[in-house]
Design a protein that fits this description.
single chain; about 0% helix; 7-stranded mixed β-sheet; disordered N terminus; mainly beta; Immunoglobulin-like
Amino acid sequence: MLMFPLVAAASEGVNYVVVSGQIINYEYGNPVKNHSVFIQQCDNSGNPEKDIIELLTDNEGFFYDSIATTNTKGAFTIFTYDYYGKRIDTTLYYRFLIFNSNVLVANFKIYMPYQMEKVQARFNYYQKIGDNRFKFLFKDLTKTSNIISRKWNFGDGTTSNEKNVEHLYSATGFYKITLSVKALVNNEVQTSSFSRMIYISDRSYYNFGGHAFCQYFPIDVGVAYLYMLDSSRSFIPIDTAYLDTLGYYYFYQVPAAEYLVKAQPTKNSSSYGKMLPTYYGDKISWENASIIHLTETGWEYDIHLKSVEGSLQSGNGFIHGNISFFNGLKEGGELPVEGVTVYLLNGNFVSLIYHYSDGNGDFNFSNIAFGDYSLKPEITGVHCDEVSIEVSGTQPVVDSIKILIQDGEASLSVPEQKHFSQDFFNSIYPSPALSQIKLAIQSSSGNDMEWKIFDMSGRFIKNGFYSLQPGNNIININIPDLDSGLYLMEIIWDNGKKAQKKFSVR
């Protein structure tokens, strides 16, 4: 069974996370050697999963370990204790994707009794966030005013004698930076060196999240999905986060890229069936959602769930279908897809109700009134058209609807149905269109027809007329003046009969 939008991460089996860092004296800046550091492996919510690992720092205060994990994402809580037994800790998150940095760095400053040397070299560094992540500022913090000379070694074969210096690295990786100073103390020349380690990952990683609101209040129970836009401009499902009790979602250690986020109520939420699954940007369609250009950590990506627009009348009608994904490597070629949102719309494309496909890929709409409906799945990154369905007294059950996902498209097939009229609006294509669209219309006897184009707010754009011929008709309509977006095509024929379909322009 394929879970959608959940997918297996690219890295399978055993992965390795390098945990490294340094402990220095808070007061004097010297490295704290032979000191215990503890590492606790956790899940992505910070809950402990494995036994605690104890490490000892070396003579320069450094510690490191390579830890095996079968998780594709998670966290490590790293902690130590100062002289008074006070715990100092941090939690760092990791994630394995097609490209991934699996190095976590945790540095600590703690209080420890120490007989201060006559000269103790010390420095700090600052990564130039927002400028160039390969650029660092190094500042000499050595506490003496009689320095004779200093020398920086940046770990990449370059040096400097300046007090404070900016340095630009040319590649990713670990670098050991050493500051060596000579100072005149009580007419004696004293020397001291101090080293620190920095790591430049192959990509920048950030944490982000936001609230999911149901009108004025956070949603009670829900889930958020994360999709990344890859190099082929396709959206790939990356992660799933359940909303906390305050309606907040979190995604940790996400590489810099472009993303979509969708929030939706789960079936046990009081908002299920009332509030629609909604993308960041407060849109219910992925084509119209706002793309997150992730370049820094942020927690302001709030989503306000949209309300169901219409009201579904009850009756004796029933609609059933199944969603599957074509897999050419599997015998039979198809896998059921769970978690797809399927909308039931009225003839004016107003949402009436929605359901999620179950573990077998099935979805049902039961006890609905007779009438004309449209069915539309919403699958992030997959183009899906609506399919018209008639539920009537002569056909109260519409069964065996098939939705097949393949090559970024979803094809919908409905078993043959009885129609009140032999005239019908077959299709509109291509979608998305550039400068022209085509209407495929079948007419039983030939009629004069008017077509109208509206934007999705209902504003009239343009219209035209056409004389239908008996049989199949293909009508070409030029649309060079339409901006990118979604539109509604309406045709009117035979003294007031109407039909509508959506199309998009890029």
